[in-house]
Write a structure and sequence with these properties.
Layout (H helix, E strand, L loop, with lengths): L11 H5 L2 H4 L1 H20 L1 H4 L2 H26 L7 H19 L2 H31 L5
Length: 140
């Protein structure tokens, strides 16, 4: 029994390492980001030194941030599902089509929520059924 005992890890070597060795992955990521930005500014200063591109980022990025927040819960629960962006896309398409034709925001929002909930329900039922069939040994 004593042969299988595992000693606790020694934490002393990580305390002796300098901070730049402990954080080399983060430092290299930030360094690459800065180098890429410098390359972009050098080769296209008329684009990257004007405020218009950053305004465009500030307008378009929050939508993807909201989707990323919702995706965080899905990944945390272990239900990684590649259909999540597709369901968001079809709900957005339903909203845009209805809003363009009627110019009623609330109606478009309600239909988008219903389409998203319906597509999510169908997707969830299909995934649950496939998991049940797999656990029963009826699927490879």
């Amino acid at each position: 029994m004593s042969d299988l005992a595992v000693s606790p890890p020694d934490l002393a070597p990580t305390q002796r390492q300098p901070w730049w060795q402990r954080h080399r992955m983060q430092i290299s990521t930030v360094t690459m980001l800065v180098l890429l930005y410098i390359v972009f500014v050098v080769f296209a200063p008329d684009v990257y030194l004007r405020f218009d591109i950053y305004r465009s980022f500030m307008i378009s990025i929050p939508f993807f941030g909201i989707m990323a927040i919702a995706m965080t819960y899905i990944v945390t629960l272990g239900e990684i599902d590649l259909s999540f962006p597709s369901i968001c896309g079809i709900a957005g398409w339903a909203f845009s089509q209805l809003y363009i034709s009627t110019h009623v925001f609330i109606l478009g929002l309600a239909v988008a929520l219903l389409v998203g909930a319906g597509a999510g329900l169908i997707n969830g039922l299909l995934v649950a059924r496939m998991v049940a069939l797999h656990e029963a040994g009826q699927l490879p």
